[in-house]
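Shift notes (night). Ran Putative RDD family membrane protein YckC while the centrifuge was going.
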Amino acid sequence: MPDEILTGEGVALQISPASVLARAAAWLIDAVATAGVILVTFIFVPLLWELSDFDSAALRAILYVAIVVLFIGVPITVETLSRGRSLGKLALGLQIVRDDGGPVRLRHASVRALVGFFELWMLFGGLAFLVSMLNDRGKRVGDYLAGTYAIRVRSTADARPPLYLPAELAGWAALTDLRPLPSGLALRARQFLSRAPRFPPTIRHRLGLRLAAQLELFVSPAPPWGTYPEPFIAAVLYEHRRREQLAQDRLNQRLTAQLSGINTLPYSIDDPS
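Came back to this:
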């Protein structure tokens, strides 16, 4: 089952390790793009030889620098700036992430590029393919050393329905005493409501009862007798969000009033300016 990462923007990203074939296809796309640049380079270098006074040693040095930049410098720069998404990975919906699911940094991209020069280009991808076939996450040698792996990314930002207040619980929700909810419990309840229609009825009812029992510890009085778990969960989350918003609005009003009085002199003293 795919893992899920909740970003700071509230977007849920379903992730699963990319298959070896998907990684190979992404690398082939990158290899074709690299081959195009190599072709342009080998056309440009002889032309530079003819139009300049460089000797063969200088032109050879330029060629070596171009190879280092192309095979090591460019992958490091692209993976660092794009957070692990090269041209091929972007085309196939793949991304390189750390083992803990976080974005890759310069250190990770550097290790992957340096090792990848040997296992992908010098060995024509043979070692990378063999090692990737031997683990569940499809990691090559560079991924083991850098602590990374490739994932498939699918955004599900629109799959989470908005919170709602069931009409039959509106009166109870307005009068109930609601204590602050732990962030983990609130997130589990929110995810349950968005995924509930996809669960089998038995599992859906069981999970709903379990979450409702946990949420009931933070409300008083209990909901009316006979209330189903899902409407109760929805009412608690909706009321919790509404009260948080009201508290934030009151805080903003106080801050605005305090800021407006900063430039005002006390006791109705006229401003000398």
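The CA atoms of residues 26 and 89 lie 5 Å apart. Residues 6-11 have pLDDT under 50 and may be disordered.
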